[in-house]
Amino acid sequence: MFDKIKDSIQKFSSSNVADEEAVEQLVKDIQRDLIKADVDVSLVSDLSDEIREESLGEKKDGLSRKEHVLEVVYNKLEELLGEESEVEIEPQTILLCGLYGAGKTTTTGKLADFYRKRGMKVGVIAADTDRPAAFEQLQQIADDVEASFYGEKDAEDPVQVVENGKEELDVDVLIVDSAGRNSLNDDLKQELSDMEKVLQPDEKYLVIPADIGQSARDQAENFDDAVGLSGVIVTKMDSSAKGGGALVACQHADISVKFIGTGEKMADLEVYDPVDFVSDMIGQPDLESLLEKIEELDTDPEAILEGEFTLEDFQEQMASVTDSGMMEEMMSQLPFSSDQIPDNVANLTEGKIQSYNVIIDSMTDEEVKDPSVINRERRERIANGSGTSVEDVQELIKHYRQTKNMVDKFDKKSMKRGNMQNMMQKLGL
Hints:
The chain folds into three domains: about 5-80, SRP54, nucleotide-binding domain (Four Helix Bundle (Hemerythrin (Met), subunit A)); about 90-275, P-loop containing nucleotide triphosphate hydrolases (Rossmann fold), CATH 3.40.50.300; about 285-425, Signal recognition particle, SRP54 subunit, M-domain (434 Repressor (Amino-terminal Domain), Orthogonal Bundle). Helices cover about 50% and strands about 10% of the residues. The chain has 20 helices and eight strands. The chain has an eight-stranded mixed β-sheet, with helices on both faces. β5, α9 (about 215-225) and β6 (about 230-235) form a beta-alpha-beta unit. α13 (about 310-325) packs antiparallel against α16 (about 350-360) and α16 crosses α18.
């Protein structure tokens, strides 16, 4: 979706100059790339003006002009894509709506899978009485993701189905798959309105496909006027070059994107985080730049060398790496082979870090501050609460202990840029 932008930024990064001419070429390349991703032209124009002005303005001490330009571009693209979604893992009722072909039924299953893996008891209601085979499709999906299912085959009144299903299912998270139409006509508006009165949902999500691009804005605004949306789920992000336009369009309609569908499997649903997209676009070309970014992280590396290193400290260090978008780039740029990297670093992928965060959030304050108290019974409780396995909890504790041992080997000088060789020697590399 944004591969071209990454290419444009890397071309700028690898050039020898970062003068006004180079900045202007970068701006033109980003303009072209965003328009190809179907981002609104007026938004692209405003973004271009801001990048020009700030890139050639005053820079932070300690940053080169090139690094300053990259920081400006990073911040502006992040602003364009909106804010990170807040998704609560708690009992709730969700109504999914949208037009034909948006992927509502599949998304119902993905949401069910998402909440079930996080310890919630989930049920789904087949309220699409309009589309042939919708009942059978959702029933099969519910079985696949281990969610409770309610539907009435050949039913004609979807509102009554919802009312009956609400009474029948005793679950923490209830998700309703409603019918679509070719357009948001009066019949669909009335149906959704009646369904809302019966269901009284906590969340009302519009499901839209990424391939509609900036047209997502009109659709989101129309559904918001009709039913009062709490968010949008953008599907088919893996197969559309217009996904960027859809994301930007929703954000600038003041309707938050909550989730994105990134593939065909039930697990291919992610909480929307614009930082992930911007991090994919920004690539640093050498280890020196990466180390400078590490030094500029909000977390003070000296702080973890003072006092006891707890799981809370471990979590903060993981957040620093993922927030800076450097994990994959760092691994590819380090000047030694992958088999020389310690397990606690090599295996700490961004996906694994997300899993670890869920596990740590399921612990008590005592367990976070003193992981040595986590016995078998506690591991089982934590695994159940986080929707993971006992093995996952054990793996987290192992990585924490490895990192703690690594931190204990460091002195303060080895944490600073310019002493990479000393740090690697202490890691046994």
